[in-house]
Amino acid sequence: xxxxxxxxxxxxxxxxxxxxxxxxxxxxxxxxxxxxxxxxxxxxxxxxxxxxxxxxxxxxxxxxxxxxxxxxxxxxxxxxxxxxxxxxxxxxxxxxxxxxxxxxxxx
Length: 107
What we know:
Layout (H helix, E strand, L loop, with lengths): L18 H26 L18 E5 L14 E5 H19 L2
Antiparallel strand pairs: 1-2
């Protein structure tokens, strides 16, 4: 299973909320994440900050927004915590930490 596909519920579930209320909150959360993605693409351009590959409107979905400090809630409007990475470089960036943890355990 992809690690990103499972997101545990943080805190307690409010029993007074309807399924419609919960769905509305989830949609608003997705709208927020889209807005910072679009802001990062506008600020930093359609280019991977790591490999330098350029993208256009046809393949812009291959660009992801990487949070430099690892905190996806830290979204300053000036884009200082973001860098646009292609899907390959973004996977590489996150796998480096996993590899480092593994190598530390082997000592």
